[in-house]
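Technical annex B. To support the medicinal chemistry partners, we prepared a structural model of the target in complex with flavin-adenine dinucleotide, based solely on the information shown next.
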Amino acid sequence: MNINYTAQDQAFREEVRTFLQQELPTDIACKVKNDKYLDRSDYVTWNRILFDKGWSTPSWPQQYGGCTWSAIQKYIFEEECFLAGAPRIWPFGIGMVGPVIYTFGSEEQKARFLPGIRSGDVWWCQGFSEPNAGSDLASLNTRAVRDGDHYVVNGQKTWTTMGQYADWIFCLVRTDPEAKKQQGISFLVFDMKTPGITVRPVITADGAHEVNEVFFDNVRVPVDQRIGEENKGWDYAKFLLDHERTGIARVGAIKDRIAQLKAVATRETRQGQPLLCDPLFRLRLAELEVEFKAHELTNLRMLAGAGHGKVPGKIASVLKIRGSELVQKTEALMTEAVGIYALPFVPQARTDSWDGAPIGPDYAGSKAAVYLNSMKYSIFGGSNEIQKTIIAKELLTL
Ligand SMILES: Cc1cc2nc3c(=O)[nH]c(=O)nc-3n(C[C@H](O)[C@H](O)[C@H](O)COP(=O)(O)OP(=O)(O)OC[C@H]3O[C@@H](n4cnc5c(N)ncnc54)[C@H](O)[C@@H]3O)c2cc1C
């Protein structure tokens, strides 16, 4: 594998950098770089800027608004966005339900839903997990019973990320309780303002309101808002989860965070010396960087393969596991670098309006909350234990 970028790719990187320098709002980039929470308007503003440039859906087929970029160029774009402090594009519309709709939806559904997903004007959330259906998702119990040209939906979803902002939800519901569990599921999309929907916050260990419980009480959903065939929803869900997993390597994000870690270790001192001079700390940082480099190369190898038409397959599971482990390892080392000042748990330090007195250096206040928040990466998108089983099955059946 040639790991050097071509002249064309380097020119593309320059084009992306220039665009980011000119178009990424400074206040939003500042929030990202300083671990502040972003609100809905920050994400929508950035999505709209990308949309106006024609860059909001680079991975979609061109006929639906995708770019002609190679897999490597998509990676370069993502990396530069992370390094510049651009907010991530929330995956639920562009990365998840959009591909399901353009692949399995009717022409009417494509015309109705794809424009709002591309522009980011319509905020989507994912209603898959339930209190008794996470890793074993096919056990889901939310029922949809046909009543004329509507389904009547009853049940509960949980861990619904950013459901508090959502305009629409895509949901897996049980339409045939008699069938084998994977075969009785359908894929519905509906407006979050439909009567009978209640959203309740779930506050996570880091003090954040990122996830929710969503309750359905006789919610009436028109049948023409079912994507694809009735009882075939599991096939569409598997397709969607593959999309979810490939975006989860987080290479650009980890690279940026390691650079921030080095900056902190240069400023922090131990016994009068910059922490970066401490041989034990240097060793751990070097180990982290070596592991990260291997991860980056694995990701590039997958992208190079994709450029030659290879399907990512189970390597997506490898990238998900390593990506989440490295995020957690980086945050753990960051917390250690900040030292005692990372001990106070100050979740408010992540809000933009926080004007509390800093306990240590100004970058320290958010670190405990960010560390706790990083625990989520090995759970969502299919937990790491489940990914290991997927990899083991592939190897053992060779
Ligand atoms: C921050 C966050 C955001 C999320 N956002 C969304 C969202 O927007 N929409 C949505 O639908 N869901 C979302 N999820 C849910 C997520 O997909 C589930 O949490 C995940 O699938 C695990 O399911 P569970 O929580 O029910 O845990 P369980 O499935 O109960 O698992 C508990 C533990 O047991 C292990 N385990 C389970 N089964 C096996 C097995 N067969 N072999 C080995 N180990 C096993 C798991 O790895 C885990 O460690 C989110 C979760 C988190 C943490």
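Notes passed to the chemistry partners:
The pocket of flavin-adenine dinucleotide is lined by residues 126, 128-129, 134-135, 159-161, 211, 376, 379-380, 383, 385-386, 389 (CB under 6 Å).
The chain has a mean pLDDT of 92.
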